[in-house]
């Protein structure tokens, strides 16, 4: 079944990582995997553009079906292979509601993280303002404190209840990205415990970004957040 699947991906990209985690969780190893370089602009190649006219990664294809949004691909895989591998959507209505809530809240976390990390990359130097940098960091700090509270309520193992779910698939790569960019462990103990626990999960270890393995030392951009 996995032989009918193709994933074009970039190392370290949280959206790409989400899809890879689900493929591991659903025992769909053996899919056609192609690692592309963002630095070389390979995400704008004809191969990617033919699958994803936005020129973004991941680009995922199952048979003739193409899903390029990571949330869509993850939900599709869980739906199509519900009885295979690990269940990623709980049956209990209350747990399912919490899973979807945290899953989509993860988009806000990702956006506030990106506002800080990518500010100097996306905003031309003449248009940058110290006040904007300060505001973005304060917004991210407020967001992280909210997730600290969420994790405290769930005892920290998973973001949406008693078991690993699509909420964790969606949120964990972003949390790992935060620590890669220097988030202070002492300041966010719940997020730190969550990160240290899940980074040992087989699906996450198997899909760990190869560039991070090659260069374990990240950056310190978020050390004062």
Automatic annotation (TrEMBL):
InterPro entries xref list: Glutathione-S-Trfase_C-like, Glutathione-S-Trfase_C_sf, Glutathione_S-Trfase, Glutathione_S-Trfase_N, GST_C, Thioredoxin-like_sf
Domain GST C-terminal: 92-217
Organism phylogeny: Eukaryota, Metazoa, Chordata, Craniata, Vertebrata
CC annotations in GO: mitochondrion
GO process annotations (BP): glutathione metabolic process; L-phenylalanine catabolic process
Protein name, UniProt field: Glutathione S-transferase
Database matches in PROSITE patterns: GST_CTER (PS50405), GST_NTER (PS50404)
Signal peptide feature range: none
Organism (species): Pleuronectes platessa
Pfam families reported for this sequence: GST_C_3 (PF14497), GST_N_2 (PF13409)
């Amino acid at each position: 079944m996995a032989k009918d699947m193709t994933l074009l991906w970039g190392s370290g990209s949280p959206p790409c990582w989400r899809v890879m985690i689900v493929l591991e969780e659903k025992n769909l190893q053996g899919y056609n995997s192609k690692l592309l370089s963002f630095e070389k602009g390979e995400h704008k190649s004809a191969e990617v553009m033919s699958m994803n006219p936005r020129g973004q990664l991941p680009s995922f294809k199952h048979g003739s079906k193409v899903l390029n949004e990571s949330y869509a691909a993850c939900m599709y895989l869980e739906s199509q292979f519900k009885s295979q591998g690990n269940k990623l959507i709980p049956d209990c209505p209350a747990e399912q509601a919490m899973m979807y809530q945290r899953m989509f809240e993860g988009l806000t976390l990702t956006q506030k993280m990106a506002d800080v990390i990518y500010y100097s990359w996306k905003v031309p130097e003449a248009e940058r303002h110290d006040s904007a940098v300060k505001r973005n960091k304060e917004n991210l700090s407020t967001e992280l404190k909210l997730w600290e509270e969420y994790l405290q309520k769930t005892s920290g193992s998973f973001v949406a209840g008693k078991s690993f779910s699509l909420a964790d698939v969606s949120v964990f790569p972003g949390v790992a990205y935060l620590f890669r960019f220097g988030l202070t462990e002492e300041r966010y103990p719940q997020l730190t415990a969550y990160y240290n626990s899940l980074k040992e999960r087989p699906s996450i270890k198997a899909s760990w970004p190869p560039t991070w393995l090659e260069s374990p030392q990240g950056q310190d951009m978020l050390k004062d957040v």
